[in-house]
UniProtKB/TrEMBL annotation:
InterPro entries: Alpha/beta_knot_MTases, rRNA_Methyltransferase, SpoU_MeTrfase, tRNA_m1G_MTases_N. This is rRNA methyltransferase. Keywords: Methyltransferase, Transferase. Residues 10-139 form the tRNA/rRNA methyltransferase SpoU type domain. The keyword Methyltransferase applies. The keyword Methyltransferase applies. Residues 154-167 have a biased composition (Basic residues).
Length: 173
């Protein structure tokens, strides 16, 4: 994958959501993960972060938002369901980005939204879980930058041999 990216949330309050964000960030090859204004830490998430992300990527827990904490040249992308946000499937992800998602029950603060170069939304009828929003955002980025082969014109038929499933621990590091 080209470039780098980080992902995090502002005002996160539930440990299982942080665990999902960290595990998903790790699975998609994030360079870092973060929270803004959250008291949660990586030790409270073992039930949902079964990949041990804390040993594989940096996790930053910032008490407040400060855009100067992000690397120079890192484009801030808010993920928020607003009327003027760009639909995620139409969004051209920046090469170097930090994605900031809102809290479980609320929206990104006005200072965070104002600091973001882009606000994107997942085109759903209503807000979805922050962990699921993380996965969809990073999956969309991986389609753009992941170097995947084009989709085949003909799909594999049922009954043909498939590929063995890999787990997140042991086999993959």
């Amino acid at each position: 994958m080209r470039g780098y990216f980080g992902i995090g949330s502002e005002g996160l309050s539930k440990p299982h959501n942080l665990g999902v964000i960290l595990r998903t960030a790790h699975a998609f090859g994030a360079s870092f993960a973060f929270t803004i204004g959250s008291d949660l830490d990586e030790t409270s998430v073992r039930q949902t972060d079964t990949s041990g992300s804390a040993t594989h990527l940096p996790y930053y827990r910032w008490p407040n938002f400060d855009p100067a904490r992000f690397p120079e040249g890192c484009v801030l992308v808010g993920v928020e369901l607003t009327d003027d946000a760009v639909d995620l499937p139409s969004f051209r992800h920046p090469l170097n980005a930090a994605y900031i998602l809102g809290p479980e029950k609320g929206s990104l603060s006005r200072p965070v939204q104002d600091a973001c170069a882009h606000i994107v939304k997942i085109p759903t009828a209503f807000c979805i879980n922050v962990g699921l929003a993380t996965a969809l955002t990073l999956y969309d980025r991986s389609i753009l930058f992941g170097g995947h082969a084009p989709r085949p014109l003909v799909q594999r038929r049922r009954g043909q041999p498939g590929v063995k499933h890999k787990t997140g621990i042991g086999q993959n590091g």
